Amino acid sequence: MQEKILRVTSQTIIVGVDIAKKEHWARITDYRGVDLVKPVKVQNNEESFERLMARIEKIRIDKGCEKVMIGLEPSGHYWKAFGWYLYLHQSNPVLVGVNPYHTKQAKELDDNSPTKSDKKDALIIAHLVRDGRYFDVYLPEGAYAELRVLCNERKRLQKQVSRANNTIVALMDEYFPEYDEVWGKVTGQTSRKILRTLPFPSDILKTGEKNLANTLSIFSSGKEGKVRAARLFEAANRSIGVTEGKESARLRLRNLLEELELYERKVDGIEEAMEAIMDDMEMGELLCSMKGVGPIISAVFLGEVGDVSRFDNWKQVRKLAGLNLVEQSSGQHKGKTKISKRGRPYLRWILFLAGKDGVLHNPEMRGYYRCLRERKQNPLSGYQAYVATGLKVMRILFHMAKNRVPYDPAKALGAVREQQIAALA
Question: Which is it for the CA torsion 113, 119, 122, 126, positive or negative?
Answer without folding.
Answer: negative
